[in-house]
Structures are given as structure tokens and as C-alpha cells.
Design a protein that fits this description.
Length: 245
């Protein structure tokens, strides 16, 4: 069955986020929960469903489902000084199949009272995954630079973002042509818009063109991570086989 076309995030949803920011307490949220369900949660569920169909055309390896992609509105306040119970933004993530929701490079967007952010990349890699990505850059600098210097990438994102070290990490060549990128601890690219843009007919088109532009980077980053995972599974299978002998 064909998914109906996604239009835009509703004005009422953005208004709800503004009101929630002023009234971030359980009583207020419970009395306005039906508004949240209709104008925030449901539109994002429809966006995820629409993107699931789009991904079949240009990114079949990326996962898009409410269970995997949607973030809860409830904040985890256990280790935070801020005890506000609710997030004042709504976000979705689209990870690579075969990797966890917060593993590997993925696609991401959020709508808040301050901004609409659309982008993706590798946010909090495990140490072994970060090491694998750095080695991948060392081995394939031409492919990496071709992605970052592509006209579409430069036009949409400008340059690569993310936290980085002061120096090239130990074990990597300081004189490598991509040495500056070996310092990166994150590999991110995103574009920001005023939140109102999410309520316009431009929104869905912007999401698609942004995800299409960042996909080559996401795939480049995920290649070594997936290889690391497969190698680890083979090693574990070999060890288990040896234990059974």
C-alpha cells in the first residue's frame, strides 16, 4: 500500500513545543497530551513512514521505523541537574541496518523552538570503531576527499564538523595527507534552519536533499565499522567452535 505524501510539521506541533518549554511539568503535559499525540508524535510517525519508502529508492540499508527511529519525549533526569521531565524538541534518527541505534553513522533531524536541524554522521563512536574509521581514512584518502569536496556536499554543508583532538592520535602518521581529519572524534555534517521552516512545504524536500547529500559520507564511515563487526563475529564463532571441540 502506497504511503500518503508527507506535507509538513503542523503549526500546532511547533506551538506545543513552545508551550512545553514554558510549562515543563507533568501536570501540564498530561492535560495537553492529546495535542502532543496529534500534532507532534503522529506527524513524526508519518514522516518516518514516508522516509522508509524513500530510503528504498536511494538508501535501502538505512532503517526507518517508529520503534527504531523515534526518540521519546521523556528526559532521563537521573544524572542531570536539570530535572525538567520533558524534552522541548522532537527528534528522529535513521541508523544503518546491522548496527545499533547509536552505533555507526546515521541520518538525523530534530525540530526545536530554536531550530530545525537536518544532517547526520558519526556522533559517539566506540573506540574500536573510531580507530577503524581513522585507518579507513588513512587507506582511502582520495575517496574521503572526493566526498567532502563534492560540489553538493560543499554547497549544502560547507565542511565537516565534530569534536576533534589537538594532535594526530598516537599510531597514525602526522604527515598524512588527511592528518587534519585523523584528529576528529566525531564526523558530522548538518544544516540549520529557523524552526518555522519545518511547517512549510519546503520541509520534506529539504530533508530528502540533505539526507541524499550526506549519504556518501555515512556509507564511507560505516564501511570499516561493519567490517570490524563482521571480523569480531567470525573470531567469536571460531573461539566458540574451538571451545566445543
Amino acid at each position: 500500500m502506497k504511503q500518503k505524501a508527507f506535507s509538513a510539521f503542523p503549526d500546532q506541533g511547533l506551538q506545543f513545543l513552545h508551550s512545553l518549554k514554558r510549562n515543563n511539568n507533568r501536570d501540564w503535559f498530561h492535560s495537553h497530551k492529546s495535542i502532543y499525540e496529534q500534532y507532534v508524535k503522529q506527524p513524526m510517525t508519518e514522516l518516518i513512514a514516508a522516509l522508509a519508502q524513500e530510503f528504498q529508492k536511494f538508501a535501502p540499508e538505512m532503517l526507518a521505523s517508529p520503534k527504531v527511529s523515534a526518540y521519546r519525549i521523556y528526559r532521563d533526569t537521573r544524572f542531570s541537574k536539570d530535572k525538567s521531565p520533558y524534552k522541548t524538541h522532537v527528534a528522529v534518527v535513521f541508523p544503518r541496518s546491522g548496527l545499533g541505534k547509536h552505533e555507526g553513522a546515521g541520518l538525523y533531524l530534530h525540530i526545536s523552538t530554536q531550530e530545525l536541524l537536518i544532517g547526520g554522521g558519526l556522533y559517539m563512536p566506540l573506540p574500536e570503531d573510531l580507530n577503524a574509521v581513522r585507518n579507513h581514512i588513512v587507506d582511502h584518502p582520495d575517496r574521503f576527499f572526493a566526498i567532502l569536496e563534492h560540489d553538493r556536499f560543499r554547497k549544502i554543508f560547507g565542511s565537516l564538523g565534530g569534536d576533534r583532538l589537538q594532535r594526530v592520535p598516537q599510531g597514525f602518521p602526522v604527515d598524512h595527507v588527511a592528518a587534519a581529519y585523523l584528529k576528529y572524534k566525531q564526523f558530522l555534517a548538518a544544516r540549520n534552519f529557523p524552526p518555522r521552516v519545518a511547517t512549510t512545504p519546503r520541509f520534506y524536500k529539504l530533508v530528502l536533499e540533505t539526507f541524499q547529500a550526506i549519504l556518501p559520507l555515512v556509507r564511507f564511515l560505516n564501511d570499516p565499522i561493519l567490517r570490524t563487526r563482521r571480523l569480531k563475529k567470525r573470531q567469536e564463532a571460531f573461539l566458540n567452535l574451538g571451545a566445543d571441540v
